[in-house]
Amino acid sequence: MRAALLVLLAPEVAGQYCTQPDLVDHTPPRVVRGGVGGSDSDPPFSIVWNMPTAPCALCPNASDHVEPERFGVTVNKNESEYGDEIVCLYEFGLPPRLKASNLSAWPTPLEDITVVQNGGVPQAPSFNMSLHLATLAKDIERRIPDPDFAGLALVDKEGWSPLYCGNWVSGGSRYYNIYSEALVQAAHPSWNATRVRATAAEQWDAASKDFYLQSIQAARRLRPKARWGYFATPTAPPGARGSAEHKAGVKALNARLGWLFSAVDFLAPLIYVTQRPEQRSPSQNLTAWAAAAVGNAISVADEVAAAGGKRPAVLPYGSIVYRDLSPAPPPSVPQPYMEDRVGLAATVQVPAALGKRHDIAGIWVALFSRSERYRC
Length: 376
Known about the structure:
Elements: E1 3-4, H1 11-14, E2 45-46, E3 48-49, E4 74-75, E5 86-89, E6 97-100, E7 113-117, H2 129-143, E8 152-155, H3 164-170, H4 174-187, H5 193-222, E9 227-230, H6 244-255, H7 258-261, E10 266-267, H8 286-306, E11 313-314, E12 317-318, H9 341-355, E13 363-364
Parallel strand pairs: 1-2, 3-4, 5-8, 8-9, 10-11, 12-13
Antiparallel strand pairs: 6-7
């Protein structure tokens, strides 16, 4: 297939916002209708819209509503969230899950874990894979009712890493490891901490791999024509201010996940711009950051092909709204909710430029709350 890039800006103006001429070709990207398939005769990019903007038609300023399809953009019918071109599944079975009341505590005390769903962790004896897969099938039937759906199916990956070490790297899911070690310690009270941690890691990695592979295989059996991928995969390297230890941890994490990358049809690296202009430091280079995230995914895809697997497409996943506005201010408070030109250059022009040199596709997706119609 040819590349696909989800872009909101009209192609002829997108190139004006690049600040890194060595990375970006300012030739305006062309667009093509017809989804993310395409052929060798297609222009470099097709554009896919995944914003559920149908509620904008109910806004007082509905007459100003932009219809993306008028600009050659491929859109789900009625600009719906779940449609015929792309679906993002936030409900995907009944995975093992924990919730903690105090994530800032370190280490997370076991008493702060308030919810244990379906075993809590994939290696738990009480985890029910059959129940998870049965629920997954119902979720797919509900959100993708067409058995011949041939679009993109993006799965919102769980709040825990496929690898035990990744829970330490991400930080926010470290309590999964605390819980895992507690299970091992309870079964083997006399073991020392080193042996407990090593066993917990081994059990986690094996059970997590089985969970991810069985899930994507079951999804593919149900909708074999769809192209399947996991959200925020692979993990993107941290920005310039990330520590050397963090960068090394992310690199090691991705190096061990070839089994996951080779099981999907596309990779979806995350390129959200989370800081508004006034929050950024003068030294921040969003273009270089986005190029590193997309380049990392390209390298991962190349490694899958080099190992004899089918090379997954690369579909960067971004947003046109800032991600640090939760809860959002009321409509009466003026705020720059939409990304500025520098942010758009990072999330649009970088994938576009790299797409001309690599087999890269791109999705630029913005989440939209129906209760926030003032963003229309």
